[in-house]
Amino acid sequence: MKLLVTGGAGYIGSVCAARLVEFGHEVVVLDDLTTGHADAVPDGCRFVHADVAEAAGPLLAEGFDGVLHFAAKSLVGESMQDPARYWSGNVLTSLLLLDAIRAHGIPRLVFSSTAAVYGEPDQVPIPESAPTRPTNTYGASKLAVDHAITSYATAYGLAATSLRYFNVAGAHGRFGERHATETHLIPLVLQVALGQRPQIHVYGADWPTDDGTCVRDYIHVTDLANAHLLALEHATPGQHRIYNLGNGTGFSVRQVIDACRRITGQPIPAEVVARRPGDPATLVAASDRARADLGWKPERPGLDTMVTDAWTFARTHT
With contact defined as beta carbons under 8 Å apart, do 130 and 288 qualify? Predict the structure, then answer.
């Protein structure tokens, strides 16, 4: 298939683009490089350096079999401080992309959504039937796009899939996580191991969990990319299917730090500080529906595997 990958120079988008190339697809990456990296575009991809909202229409006029939409603003804190940037960058851009998809008869769309749409859940693991109550603008903007996709699929026959997940970790060969503003736990802990920051903060050690620290769902980036490929294959015209992707279990902050110490051989100082307002004790996504419908399951579920791959990448991309 000929596929357009928006945000394909970013962490998850680049891994997905690489997997698509590995499976023999023709891939065009569209990215404005505001957070992505030109050297993360996989070999064998055509790269278009442009704004998604402006370039998607002319590009899709060439004819494509599908679009995988990763391009988005994704910092929770920033989304609360500058919501206009998120409503424009996430929602308006996605609406313009949907209009271009419709105008040029593109049959398939896979959208990189987020489990942040659920907010603080009533039950864990979180099923797709859980109420959507995002607690930040980032999650709200992604949920708005999901609603728009449902409308377009129903009215215009688009075969669409949204994939919702929490924390992505690990690396796929030379494709890994590197953000100018890093907020994710594993790369932050590895920065301590590399001597780039003095210590890691643990936000509370008195949570109602086994070791007192927050528990979060982690999924290997290659497993996540594989789910996107399966979603393309199983897309059904006129339907918008939504799948949560989870590891099946969660890992605590303390477990992550211990794994990083074990893999890196570094002491990694950690300091317990006050809880952050709004942090739930446990967030884990259920993936039963994806396993049943797509035949997907994590092949790299181990925390040590994710940390090892992330560490290998981090040491060569400092």
Answer: no
Positive or negative: CA dihedral 257, 282, 114, 300: positive
- Evaluate whether 243 touches 161 at the Cβ level (below 8 Å): yes
Model confidence pLDDT, tens digit, residues 245-293: 999 789 999 999 999 999 999 999 999 999 988 788 999 999 999 999 9
- From the list 152, 51, 155, 28, the residue with the least C-alpha distance to 101 is 152
**Region class of 293: left (phi > 0), else alpha (psi between -120 and 50), else beta:** alpha
Q: What angle do CA 195, 201, 206 make, to 5 degrees?
A: 150
Map 128-153 to HEC letters.
CCCCCCCCCHHHHHHHHHHHHHHHHH
What is the rounded average pLDDT of the residues 124-132?
96
* Given 118, 138, 218, 243, the catalytic residue: 138
pTM to 2 decimals?
0.96
Where does 167-268 show beta strands of DSSP type E?
Answer: 167-169, 200-203, 215-216, 218-220, 240-244, 251-252
Alpha carbon distance 270, 115 (integer Å) = 28
- Contact in structure between 197 and 191 (CB atoms under 8 Å): yes
What pLDDT is stored for residue 317 in this prediction?
Answer: 85
Pick from 162, 169, 174: which is nearest to 70 by CA? Answer: 162
Tell me, what's the pLDDT at 88? 96
- Is the pLDDT at 304 greater than 80? The verdict is yes
Residue 183 reports pLDDT greater than 90: no
Q: Is the dihedral of CA 222, 11, 165, 16 positive or negative?
A: negative
Residue 138 annotated in active site = yes
